[in-house]
Amino acid sequence: MSHSPPPPPARRRFGKEKRVRLQRDFRRVYAAKHYAADDTLVINGCENQLPTGSTRLGLSVSRAVGNATIRNRWKRWIREAFRLAYGELPCGFDFVVRPKRGANGGFAAIRSSLPRLTQRVARRIRKAAP
Fold first, then answer.
1. Does 66 fall in a domain?
2. Which of 54, 64, 80, 95 can bridge 45 by disulfide, Cβ–Cβ 3.0-4.6 Å?
3. If we measure between CA atoms, which residue out of 36, 22, 40, 21 comes closest to residue 78?
């Protein structure tokens, strides 16, 4: 008796529509001055006013984090955590995520921090709205 393999999970892609890519969008997020941080990540955010209501991610991983290999690892981990947690994130926001200075967190720490911090930023933005 053989078992058929389980069906593949629905693909949750990290396409261009889910990325903050333009310099003016990064500036808008930073100018809003809404952020949250823990021992692993610092997340800045603002509402994005997109008609689709989708949440977008921007990355800011500086050379202070480490060499190219380490920076790329951080970016991969943050993108994957965003992709996996997309359904848990607040809708209609742009978030710029960076590692906290001196953070040693691995993927598990990023995976748990990202949804919690984005919710915190979204609450602060909604509270500040008129």
1. yes
2. 95
3. 40
Contact 95, 121 (CB under 8 A): yes
* Tokens representing residue 85 in the block: 């947690």
Tell me the average pLDDT of the chain. 89
Into how many domains does the chain fold? 1
Does the residue 1 lie in any domain?
no
Predicted TM-score (pTM) of the model is 0.87
The closest of 68, 67, 65, 66 to 97, measured between CA atoms, is: 65
Q: What is the pLDDT of residues 18-58, one digit of tens each?
A: 899 999 999 999 999 999 999 999 999 999 988 888 999 99
Residue 60 belongs to domain spanning: 18-128
**CA–CA dist 79, 130 (Å, integer):** 32
Q: Are residues 105 and 40 in contact, defined by beta-carbon separation less than 8 angstroms?
A: yes
2 occurs within a structural domain: no
Write down the pLDDT at residue 50: 86
Residue 93 φ then ψ, to 5°: -125, 155
Token pair in block for residue 130: 């008129």
